Amino acid sequence: MCEPKNSSYLGKNEGHTTPDVLIAGRDESFFQSLFEFIKHEKQYLQCPLEGPDELHYIIYRSVFNKVIRRATAYKRLLLTIKGEYDDVIRELQRREDEAMEDQRNLVASTSHPKSLIIYQRRAAQLRDKLSVLQRETAELQKEIKRHKSHQEQDTWIPGLTVAQSEDSESLDRHLKHLEAQKAALLDRKSNCVPVEVKAELDVKLQASEQHGEQLRTENDKLKILFMRLRIVFERLSSWGQQVPLEELLSSTVENFTQSSITGDDNSSIEVELFEDEEPCGVDESKHLTEYLDRFVELFDSAQYEEAALHAARSPRGVLRNLDTMNMFKGVCGPPRSVPPLLLYFQALLLTLPSGDKLSAPLAKELVLCALQHGDTQLVNHTVTHNKLTCSEDLGDILSEHAQKNPRVADLCLALATDAYKACRLNKKTALSMCKRGLVHSAAEFMNNCKDLTTEDCLWVLYQSPSVSLLQLLIESQQGQAAILSVGVVLSTLLADPQQQELALQLLDSFVSRGRGVFEEVILEDSKSLLDDWTDVASTCSELNRADLSQVILSILLDQSGTRVLSPDLEGAELVEHVFL
To answer: Are 125 and 157 within one domain?
Structure first.
């Protein structure tokens, strides 16, 4: 509604006391307060009792506003009605203004005699316009009455008739129904999720289905592998050794080229024979770093046994080396406990793959450590089971330990012999046999070694002087020529002050068996010259063994000046002339 022209009248009387509309809990009190408000305002503003008046519009518009503010369910409907009333009032006000303006123009025009005709024409127009206004006003009043009565409107509130809309009990029941619907909608809303969440869940569901398919495929493969392993187990269980094991396994594997296994859902699964594959997608450097970090953690916390096993099982053997060994070598364990270094070596042997050997440097350090702590059984086990890479140093360590510890000398010398043999160190092999007292075995071994030189044999004699060994070396074995020449050996031994006693013992043994035996030895020695025996006789004389010197010279003088003493026609010119 538009404001009335004399609205200033209210502005001048703002100080009057108008009773406020009661805000009561019941509609009767509210409407009673409205009636009192209308009556009081009409009296105060002195509104005419009948007929249209702008003050009436102001009062009722104010009352209508109060009703709308109080209303809840009908507010929208009341606002629509108020809007239509305002439109009607504005249209009536506009037409009234136009009529007044035309009247003023008419009065002004009639003041001139010449405009009488115009005045009459305008009066006729005004009468026509007034009749039109009256007709339209009547129509508007009918429209207002129609809105008031709502005779053409079936319901005020969706779901209620006009009668139900005016009944308080029906309205209460409808309100409870609406509240129940609201609660149901809120409950349903609590079980719903946004569209974005649904899309994300759909993606996860799809990924889960793909992962499930992969797991099913992997499960099928494992089923096939299990079935094949069970078949192999059954074949091995029933193997009666009628056929070689290799042939049995070969025929079993051939049947695996194409296998068909029935799954849980009675579906047939066809899969090719599995092949060993290296794990892919693994960050080896990261895995190795984590493995080394774990070793350092165990070592720093003095968990030496766990650290030793961890190092022995290291990937690619990165911790099976001298650097790791030196770490264990540099620490000490608790009192009366196994030394950390020995724990490391035990772990290395425990995890050593079949057929592999510890490297020569590690083998050497292992033997040193085990012998230092008196664990000869560990050394015996590792050497005899071929778990160490043999070397000359390893044999030397065992030989030295045998000299210092007579209680385990025989065992250490036997292990040293095995080490020397593995390295093809024939002279040291023979020497270790001699130190064990196995003189005949040593002589036989030396006789069978084609690559042993005279110097090698003499070295063995120097290291282990033995008349028995010397006799075996200068005698022919099984129709083969002797390893050493008697004259050369005696000449060489007598030239060395430390070996002169050995040479004299050999000569005494010849003399003790008779002149004929000694003469036969000299005559059969095809590798010595007259000068060799002359030197032997001269040296015996210098050593105050004239008896030996005379026997040798007499045997030489008994021979003809041109006689070849040696039966070896190719080689030996023992004596050409004998000079006294």
So the answer is: yes
For residue 30, CA distances in Å to 38, 63, 71, 376 come to: 13, 11, 11, 116
Same domain, 15 and 139: yes
Q: Which domain holds residue 111?
A: 8-163
Count: domains in the chain = 4
Q: Alpha-carbon distance 160 to 165, whole Å?
A: 6
pLDDT at residue 154, as a whole number: 47
Spatial distance between the Cα atoms of 557 and 380, rounded to a whole number of angstroms: 58
Strand-pair partners of 291: none
What is the DSSP code string of 12-30?
HTTTS--PPPP--SSHHHH
- Full-model pTM: 0.47
Are 15 and 150 members of one domain? yes
The pLDDT value recorded for residue 111 is 54
**Model pLDDT, residue 135:** 77
Identify whether the C-beta of residue 500 lies closer than 8 Å to the C-beta of residue 493.
yes
| Kind and range of the H or E run holding 272 | strand 268-272
Whether 509 maps to a domain, the answer reads yes
Cβ–Cβ < 8 Å for 291, 309:
no
Q: What is the pLDDT at residue 22?
A: 43
Which residue ranges of the chain lie beneath pLDDT 50?
1-24, 151-155, 258-260, 263-282, 560-580
